[in-house]
Design goal:
mainly alpha, about 80% helix, disordered C terminus
C-alpha cells in the first residue's frame, strides 16, 4: 500500500516546523538573557566580596586611628570632644 502525501498534510508539517523554529529561537533568546543576568550577578558578587575584603582591612585601621585621635585629644588639648560611635 502506497502512502499518498496530501497538500494539507504538507502544509500542517511546514506550520509545525515553523512553530518549532520560533519556539527554539525564543528559548535561545531567553537563555541569552539568563546568561547575561548571571554575568551581572557574578560581577555584583565579586564587587561585594572585594568591598568586604577592603572593609576587613580598613576597619581595624580606622579603629586604631580613632584611638590615636582620642589619645592625642586627651594629651595635647585638655579638652576632648566626643567622637560619635567610638567615644561617648
Amino acid at each position: 500500500m502506497e502512502e499518498v502525501l496530501r497538500i494539507e498534510d504538507l502544509a500542517i508539517s511546514q506550520n509545525e516546523d515553523a512553530e518549532e523554529a520560533e519556539r527554539e529561537e525564543a528559548l535561545k533568546k531567553e537563555l541569552e538573557g539568563v546568561r547575561n543576568l548571571n554575568n551581572v550577578m557574578e560581577g555584583v558578587i565579586a564587587a561585594m566580596s572585594k568591598a568586604k575584603e577592603n572593609m576587613d582591612v580598613s576597619y581595624p585601621l580606622s579603629t586604631s586611628g580613632v584611638v590615636l585621635m582620642a589619645l592625642d585629644c586627651g594629651i595635647n588639648s585638655g579638652e576632648c570632644r566626643s567622637i560619635t560611635g567610638y567615644m561617648d
